[in-house]
Amino acid sequence: AQKVTQAQTEISVVEKEDVTLDCVYETRDTTYYLFWYKQPPSGELVFLIRRNSFDEQNEISGRYSWNFQKSTSSFNFTITASQVVDSAVYFCALSLQDQGAQKLVFGQGTRLTINP
Amino acid sequence: DAGVIQSPRHEVTEMGQEVTLRCKPISGHDYLFWYRQTMMRGLELLIYFNNNVPIDDSGMPEDRFSAKMPNASFSTLKIQPSEPRDSAVYFCASSRDQFETYGYTFGSGTRLTVV
Prior knowledge:
A: 116 residues, 0% helix, B: 115 residues, seven-stranded mixed β-sheet, four-stranded antiparallel β-sheet
């Protein structure tokens, strides 16, 4: 089966705390891509990052960082010094290569609430 | 770049009525995807097109759903007849090709309520 599991349904922290969102995936493909998307209260889906299966380097972008570990099939997302504006639902996704397209399989999402 | 444009943003309709959702992908994007988001099932791929041709419609729930892409700049998702269980947010997304660095670009979605 090819699927994405985000075990944390909801997380609530106080502003300025660090928070890590977990993502575990299953795939039989040797080449694949992993994504994180943010869905703020307004409802749109905002791309955050794409990582391919051959690149296990960690990525940092401002307060955001991602840890990709193939050995544990995990692609975790950490927000440092969280802010109220980070409140959103965050989705991890796995791409399936199909006839030249990337079909995305999404996890169920983690609702993150940052309290002032 | 105006992004992926979906219309309407909100649709409320009565059970049994026909509903048409519209999508304008980003110019130059060869792939167009329709997703549905519900609380129970999360984000599900319904169908996708490559160069206006439907490639995989295995996610379309049943015959009441149909999708078309008559040209590179327009796609529709039609539900006829609609049922209350079709209530969901429907997203359209587009991408250039399989090496799309930024993943998909999603539209803002259409929130459909069938009463």
